[in-house]
Design goal:
Blueprint lengths: L19 E8 L4 E5 L2 E7 L9 E5 L2 H15 L11 H12 L3 H17 L10 E4 L3 E7 L5 E8 L3 E2 L9 E4 L4 H7 L7 E7 L14 E8 H13 L5 E5 L1 H13 L10 E5 L6 E4 L4 E4 L11 E5 L17 E6 L6 E7 L2 E7 L7 H8 L10 H14 L1 E2 L1 H8 L3 H13 L3 E4 L4 E4 L9 H4 L4 H11 L4 E9 L3 E10 L4 E3 L2 E4 L5 E5 L3 H6 L7 H18 L7 E10 L2 E10 L2 E8 L5 E6 L3 H15 L2
Parallel strand pairs: 3-10
Antiparallel strand pairs: 1-11, 2-3, 4-8, 4-10, 5-6, 5-9, 6-7, 7-19, 12-17, 13-14, 13-16, 14-15, 17-18, 18-19, 20-22, 21-22, 23-24, 24-25, 24-26, 26-27, 28-29, 29-30, 30-31
Helix pairs in contact: 2-3, 5-10, 8-10, 12-14
Length: 615
């Protein structure tokens, strides 16, 4: 049985180094762009420690290639996590002034780099993308440093003029992707004939006598690897599709560039989707409405979806002038969203999860939507074998016909395959692909949980009566206040975690009676008891969604727009009470409270009211 003792935290408050997985990358040379006269060649060296992959072809549109690679580079090194003001240089200055010697500055620099090596080993390094050569396209995949942005850059085979003598070798590998490569790609010009050469040896076999290998030894954080795999599985969930024109997105990004975020205010994009109407995008907290000019929303019911990570869309600024259309796939409020930018033969898929360390509550709720398995079952093995041996890609109907799996069994099989790093879902084309992340199988047991605290919290949930939700209090305009009781047998005491959840699952306020929280708060992440309470509430909500008979607490909100004015209606069920609120968005709302003799009568009135508002 796993111990429930929380990880020890030093008095200095410094977090222990994150768990990581070693990655051995070796390249026969550094990727570069070789220019000679009116011709240029982009040489991409693959990882020599993986199976050979080769592709050669002349680019039909070098400028689009340059801007697409530049956008990919911006995503690779993107880090939008909150960073407190860096006072390292100021402290070094005070030490220098006090000691009147330059030695203090040197010590300060060494201490800074030592801390960086322990806490963020990837801060000064760029993680190399995964490139896959398939019969229909060449793909580059990467994941942002802040573990919240996924990108897949795909070039159709029609984007190249392939020489007849150079046959491609299908497979997946890593490529050397450095600052030097980015700088050299800026030399690509439209008037130069530009070709792409991808392989272990770049453009041609290694010259005789040259055996030097560029070795990279990286410690990839397990949380980064886990997030990369999870976003693949997220793409298989049901979604709402929205079509935008490039100008629609440009208007939104221009507004964000001209207006800074407000401290303590909402920072999302709100999609208002009405069947048969063109979608509207609302920028928070200004409530600026952007009417889109793309296709109408073809869903069956009206939806109101909030997504985060809007500033990460700025990484697309260089590719946006070449984009012909934008498809947005929305999984739901507080869940990942996928943005597909189509620029002729080039497609860039941008996945925004919003799951940073500050949004741990939404991440925990999202985890419960996906299967949690550390081994491939027989159904997953069938799907992997079908894609690996026969075709490399297939849609759901083709997989069902060849494997015999149908419905939920097929969905779970492909989700497990994505989480295990063997498959990927190409949401831009609606097909599943065989794409192993690494040459050797991953240690999935290490990636099952984000950290030890989350593992202990799951262990507590398996104990009967160890985690209880004592009260649920709906606070108007704020969220749901949860109070729990977590009994830890090893500690011989009960803990009282408490949190306030917003409508989209974000945590606004937390507290706990454990020693770890009293000493460090949430600086080192949520304690075991807060995680256990959040997981218990998520499980309760999942069970409640299957039937409305047991509903005791629930709140639903509806919005209707009249020009620039948004009317909001909110209905809440609280045991034997029903509360009805209405008014204009952003202003105090009127309240009507009704008390019934029994909970059954209140529940019946609640659902009757819902049916009248939203048939």
């Amino acid at each position: 049985m796993a111990t429930t003792t929380e990880p020890a935290i030093e008095d200095t408050g410094e977090a222990p180094p994150p768990p990581s997985t070693g990655a051995q990358l070796g390249y026969a040379g550094a990727s570069r762009v070789v220019t000679a006269g009116n011709s240029a060649q982009v040489e991409l060296f693959g990882n020599v420690h993986r199976s050979p992959v080769r592709f050669e072809g002349k680019l039909k549109n070098p400028l689009r290639f340059r801007e697409a690679v530049s956008a990919l580079y911006a995503i690779v090194g993107s880090d939008f996590r909150y960073a407190p003001k860096d006072r390292t240089q100021y402290i070094a200055y005070l030490r220098l002034k006090r000691d009147a010697a330059p030695l203090g500055v040197w010590h300060a620099q060494q201490a800074y780099f030592a801390w960086m090596l322990r806490n963020d080993p990837t801060a000064l390094a760029i993680l190399d993308p995964i490139v896959s050569v398939h019969p229909d396209q060449v793909m580059f995949e990467t994941f942002g440093k802040d573990e919240s942005t996924y990108a897949c850059l795909a070039f159709k085979r029609s984007a190249f003029e392939e020489s007849q003598g150079a046959l491609p070798t299908f497979g997946s590998t890593n490529i050397d992707f450095s600052d030097a490569l980015y700088a050299s790609t800026q030399q690509v010009r439209g008037y130069r004939e530009t070709s792409l050469a991808l392989g272990h040896d770049g453009a041609k076999p290694t010259p005789e006598g040259r055996k030097d290998v560029l070795e990279k030894k990286l410690q990839v954080p397990d949380s980064w690897l886990r997030g990369f795999l999870q976003v693949q599985s997220a793409a298989t969930l049901p979604f709402d599709h929205v079509n935008l024109s490039p100008m629609d997105l440009y208007n939104v990004l221009r507004h964000l560039r001209m207006n800074g975020d407000r401290k303590g205010k909402k920072r999302g994009l709100r999609f208002e989707l009405v069947p048969g109407q063109q979608p509207r995008i609302v920028a928070e907290p200004w409530e600026t409405v952007f009417s889109t000019t793309g296709d109408v929303f073809r869903g069956k019911a009206a939806r109101l979806v909030r997504v985060w990570g809007r500033r990460r869309l700025m990484t697309m600024k260089r590719l946006l002038p070449f984009v012909e259309s934008v498809d947005v796939y929305l999984l739901g409020s507080g869940l990942p969203s996928f943005w597909v930018f189509r620029a002729g033969d080039i497609t860039l898929t941008l996945g925004l999860t919003g799951f940073t360390s500050a949004n741990w509550s939404s991440a925990l709720g999202f985890d419960l939507m996906l299967p949690r398995k550390t081994q491939d079952g027989e159904p997953t093995k069938k799907v992997v074998a079908c894609l690996k041996e026969n075709r490399w890609k297939a849609d759901a109907k083709e997989l069902s016909a060849e494997t015999g799996l149908k419905g939920a069994a097929l969905v779970e099989a492909v989700q497990v395959g994505c989480q295990n790093g063997e498959l990927m879902f190409d949401i831009a084309n609606g097909v599943y692909r065989y794409r192993p992340v690494t040459e050797q199988p991953l240690d999935l047991a290490r990636l099952q949980f984000r950290n030890q605290r989350e593992k202990v919290a799951h262990d507590l949930l398996t104990r009967r009566g160890a985690v209880k939700i004592m009260s649920e209090n709906r606070i108007a305009g704020v969220g749901l206040e949860l109070t729990g009781q977590v009994s830890v047998e090893e500690d011989k005491r009960d803990y009282r975690p408490q949190m306030v959840l917003a409508d989209e699952g974000q945590v606004r306020k937390v507290t706990c009676t454990c020693a770890g929280f009293r000493k460090h708060g949430i600086k080192a992440g949520p304690c075991v008891h807060l995680i256990a309470l959040r997981l218990a509430f998520a499980e309760k909500e999942a069970k409640k969604a299957k039937t409305d008979d047991a509903v005791k607490f629930e709140t639903r909100a509806f919005a209707k727009r009249d020009g620039e004015v948004e009317h909001v209606v909110q209905i809440s069920l609280e045991r034997d009470r029903v509360k009805y609120r209405w008014g204009l968005s952003g202003q105090p709302m009127r309240l009507q409270a009704m008390k019934f003799n029994t909970e059954t009568a209140a529940r019946s009135a609640y659902f009757t009211k819902l049916a009248k508002i939203h048939p």
